[in-house]
Specification:
With about 675 residues, this protein is an alpha+beta fold. It has 3 domains: about 325 residues, Rossmann fold (3-Layer(aba) Sandwich), CATH 3.40.50; about 130 residues, Jelly Rolls; about 160 residues, Immunoglobulin-like (Sandwich), CATH 2.60.40. The chain is built from 11 helices and 35 strands. The strands form 9 sheets. It has a 7-stranded parallel beta sheet with strand order 3-4-2-7-9-10-11, sandwiched between helices. Strands 27, 29, 30, 31, 33, 34 and 35 form a 7-stranded mixed beta sheet that branches. Helix 2 packs parallel to helix 5. The chain starts with a strand and ends with a helix. About 45% of the residues are buried.
């Protein structure tokens, strides 16, 4: 293997405003719940030239360096197999301290001039430079195994070889991440202005290019970029990497320094993106109480990004520059690898690449699903009115020499259209097709393993639901049937969606009695029942009211009605009209109200509310005669429930009419729309 070369070629020492707290990455104000994210509870691993332990960004206190370990303020583990410092005289002295500062600097004494985005995070520090130069282990999975043992999902590497080839080191990264889905490596692609260098071209790595920190940002001209040697986009994300102010090592032990300087390059952009991703990890840990997998974090990182040049992902910027504002209105995630204790799980498999391959995992203990060929996962959601729908799905690819599994992301709409992954127009939105025109799985598939669908809100007006589906269109038929990993036949994924929400459960209408016969009251004349109807979903509803006693019931047909808004209802009871010739003079009258809403769709059913009044009396004397009816009082019994079925006849007729009218209208609408061709730009 060729010698490692540092991927920072532009070094400037100047006075530049720090970009670590750039609002163009956070892009949320202090009132946002996302503002409090600082990387707390997250461990990040950095392999570089070492670290100046006594710098104010990292030491335990103003006067104490402290011993690295679980109780240290910043350094949970220090690999000192080479040495325990960012050593003066070693190649690229100060580089590692600068990188570590971008990842997790939290200065003492309230100074925030170098504070990183994820200043609450802790570090695993791996020194890979000795007196002879860069000394990265031939088997880089040893670095990843070490970081995993200490709880780090995120790894930051700002180095590589001066070759565009997909090397053995690139392959090792992919082998490791396929076997351990809780390992994500951020790698600087180089500063050549040409094709990106290894190992950033690993399929499952996050290659980061540099941008400025301006609101309307632009890319740095020195970025190495895609497409990579495997004809993939290569570049995954852009992050501020120009004039980045961070910690400066002084090479003096126990000097307790607080110095800073600025540097430019993809080496700076890489830890910047890793630092941002630590906030995403913290967000999931806080909201969902588990540590997200690498595919889940990649999907979230892509979904957070805003394009700097053009609208769709490309080989110069990847998905664009991340912004927390992308998640301010909420999001929905699904992580196949969701599990309670990922560290214990990988340790149970031995913790090394060799042990992983000899001890394959079938996904037990994780939420799943893990898809074999021709299997799928899908979920229905409601689009949020006025918001674009964006869905990103990510999964790990097997290393070079293996075919790339084909997991397809499909979004369907209730009006018969669909979008597939990475079919983006120049507008930055996905092409929409009609299912009557073609099938989603007949559309071309890319060789990308992080894919996006974005549908504008203007195309979702009147859309009742969207279906998000992941289909295992083609999965490698490995030797370990039913298992994950290199030789497995199943694949997991991470998925995030914005602009959608879970279906709102249909709540029954609320009945509020304003005025009605009360328990024990006696009526000798006509009376009224007054009530309010309120529906939380603003559904239309059907109302029926009846009077009943232990012998019979009387439907108040004048009080049955359909309403499309909440309203106050007044039901007038005319005894001679509504009750005569039935025996009236009784003590066991009561009224019953039934309301049924029309919320009927593929995900919910109409809801009903019933109100039963208490017994009251009616003793009525006809104005046409001068004597009182001589009708005996009938003893009460328990047969009211038998009569309740009668009201369903009325409600069923009325509600059936509503449904039939809706079906007829929808049929008419469909017949008309069938003759109207879809918009040209949707089927282009």
């Amino acid at each position: 293997m060729r010698a490692v070369v540092l991927l920072v070629l532009s070094l400037t020492i100047c006075s530049v405003s720090p970009v670590l707290a750039s609002t163009n990455i956070m892009d949320v104000d202090e009132e946002s719940p996302l503002w409090s994210l600082d990387g707390s509870g997250v461990v990040i691993a950095v392999a570089d030239t070492g670290i100046d332990l006594d710098h104010s960004c990292f030491r335990n206190s103003s006067s104490e360096v402290g011993t690295p370990g679980p109780e240290h303020r910043k350094i949970v583990h220090l690999n000192n197999s080479i040495d325990d410092w960012d050593t003066q005289g070693h190649q690229q002295f100060r580089h590692g301290t600068h990188i570590a500062g971008i990842l997790a600097c939290d200065q003492l004494d309230g100074d925030s001039s170098m504070r990183s985005l994820s200043y609450g995070a802790k570090l695993v520090v791996q020194d890979v430079v000795d007196s002879s130069g860069w000394s990265v282990p031939d088997d880089v999975t040893s670095l990843l195994a070490e970081s995993s043992r200490h709880g780090a999902v995120i790894n930051s590497w700002s180095w590589g070889d001066n070759t565009e080839d997909y090397t053995e080191r690139s392959s090792m990264i992919d082998k490791w991440t396929v076997e351990n889905p809780w390992s994500l490596v951020f790698i600087a692609p180089g500063n050549t202005g040409s094709t990106m260098l290894e190992p950033s071209n690993a399929y499952n790595a996050v290659a980061v290019v540099a941008s400025d920190s301006n609101e309307n940002g632009s890319l740095w001209s020195g970025n190495s970029h895609g497409p990579d040697v495997n004809d993939r986009r290569g570049v995954f994300i852009a992050a501020p990497g120009m004039g980045v102010v961070s910690a400066k090592a002084d090479g003096t032990r126990n000097g307790m320094n607080n110095e800073s300087y600025s540097m430019t390059g993809t080496s700076m952009a890489t830890p910047m993106a890793a630092s941002f991703t630590a906030l995403l990890q913290e967000l999931v840990q806080n909201e969902y109480n588990y540590t997200p997998s690498a595919p889940m974090l990649r999907a979230m990182l892509a979904a957070s990004a805003e394009g700097l040049v053009g609208g769709d992902p490309d080989y110069m910027q990847g998905f664009g520059r991340p912004s927390l504002a992308s998640f301010e209105n909420g999001f929905i995630i699904h992580d196949s690898y969701k599990t309670n204790d990922w560290v214990a799980l990988i340790e149970s498999r031995g913790g090394t690449l060799e042990s992983f391959t000899s001890n394959p995992w079938n996904g037990s203990g994780a939420s799943g699903p893990f898809l074999s060929e021709n299997e799928s996962w899908s979920q229905l959601y409601q689009p949020v009115p006025g918001e674009d729908v964006e869905v990103v799905m990510s999964y790990n690819a097997r290393p070079g020499g293996y075919p790339i599994d084909d997991l397809r992301l499909i979004v369907k709409t209730s009006d018969g259209r669909f979008a597939v992954d990475d079919e983006m127009s120049n507008s930055g939105y996905s092409q929409l097709y009609y299912e009557s025109f073609t099938s989603p799985l007949q559309m071309n598939s890319s060789n990308e393993t992080t894919v996006m669908i974005r549908i504008p809100s203007t195309q979702l007006e009147g859309v009742e639901w969207v279906s998000i589906e992941v289909v295992a269109n083609d999965v490698f038929d490995g030797l370990n049937a039913g298992y994950l990993g290199l030789e497995g036949t199943k694949v997991g994924f991470g998925l995030i969606a914005t602009g959608v929400q879970d279906f709102i459960q249909n709540m029954p209408p609320e009945i509020t009695i304003v005025d009605a016969p009360g328990e024990g009251e006696n009526y000798t004349d006509n009376f009224s029942i007054s009530l309010n109807i309120f529906d939380r979903e603003n559904d239309s509803y059907v109302l029926a009211i009846r009077l009943n006693n232990s012998n019979y019931s009387v439907d108040l047909s004048d009080c049955g009605m359909m309403k499309d808004v909440e309203s106050e209802i007044l039901c007038e009871v005319d005894i001679s009209r509504d009750l005569i010739p039935r025996p009236v003079n009784r003590e066991d009258w009561r009224f019953e109200i039934i309301v049924v809403d029309d919320n009927d769709s593929i995900w919910t059913q109409p809801e009903m509310s019933v109100y039963l009044g208490n017994n009251f009396s009616i003793y009525w004397v006809s104005p046409m005669v001068d004597f009182e009816e001589d009708v005996p009082i009938v003893e009460q019994d328990e047969s009211v429930e038998q009569n309740r079925a009668l009201i369903w006849g009325i409600v069923g007729v009325i509600f059936g009419a509503v449904v039939a009218a809706g079906v007829m209208f929808r049929g008419f609408e469909k017949r008309v729309l069938d003759d109207v061709p879809p918009p040209f730009n949707d089927e282009d």
